Prior knowledge:
There is one protein chain. The protein is of the alpha+beta class and 344 residues long. Helices cover 25% and strands 37% of the residues. The chain has helices at 5-28, 111-134, 139-165, 246-251, 253-256; strands at residues 51-53, 55-71, 74-77, 84-89, 96-97, 102-106, 167-169, 174-179, 187-188, 195-198, 203-208, 223-228, 231-239, 259-264, 276-293, 298-300, 303-310, 313-318, 320-324, 328-333, 340-342. A six-stranded antiparallel barrel has the order 2-11-14-13-12-15. The longest helix has 27 residues, at 139-165. The protein starts with a helix and ends with a strand.
Amino acid sequence: MQINKKSAFKLVFIIFGTSITLLLSACSFLPKEEEVLAPPLVEPATVDYNIAEVQKGEIIHQLTGIANFVPATSENLTYKQDGGRLDQVLIAAGDVVEEGQLLVELESGNLAFDLEQLQLEYEKSKLRIEQLQAQQADSYSIQMANLDKKGLELRLTHMKEQLASSQIKSPMDGIVTFVTDVKPGEFVEPFQSMVQIADTSNLQLIYSAPTASDLDDITFGMDVAITINKEQLKGKVAQTPDTVPDEMHQQNPDLYESSLIISIDTPPDNLTIGGSAEIEVVIAKKEDTLIIPKNGLRTSFGRNYVQILQDNSKREIDIETGIVTSTEVEILKGLNEGEQVILK
């Protein structure tokens, strides 16, 4: 069968059109390409710093607290040569005693009675000499009477020494701060502490710090402002933990390692043991100097530095410090007045 040219041309046109249609239809089944969006702009979060300005002013490093009155001197009483069995203790802790008052006595048998008898014999010997002299007796009789009297004196002195060695008497007016717990009939060793008497006529202040490090900057002789019942007095540091005598430190190391002894220049007459007073010790003081809060100071391996806020950014600055208190720090180098320090 023969196809004429006109029919062939129509057929090619139909085939071409169909191909285009099919191609366009196929494209419609492909997914559409999504439009690429630009990332949103994120503003940085605002940081609120706790800051303080460097200021000029006065800085004072001081120690304040409450101190109590204690005797400045006391004496520990013992038997110095021989011990013995305890006979009686005549006082108790807290008793006020007078100089020469009998406090403690060891068993001495009939020594006190024998001493009285010997004292009578001695008095009789003196009368005997007076009698012989009144009778104008011969010199030999008078000389013999004097020798008898001398012998009685020697025995009397020895017996008094024996009795005294069995007794402890108060060496001063004062108050009893310690009494032995040895019971009557028990043996007392030589140099064993029996009684301690404190001199109530000479009082001083003792201040005990919460920690020993609180007293690191306190030195002997520093001035102390003292307030007693609103009365202003002056005193001085008389003893620090570094100047405690060894014998006192051994008695109570926990106390003396964190305590100050303070003397009063002109103590009033109405002081009592156990009374209290307010004390103030100025350790260091500076006026018209740069100061920051202590919680602005930062340290690292011996380095002192601060963080400052400058142009809304944080910077670290090395500094040199002076006086440091519990709340403030003096700045010697590194900062200027008005700069903003970031606090911790």
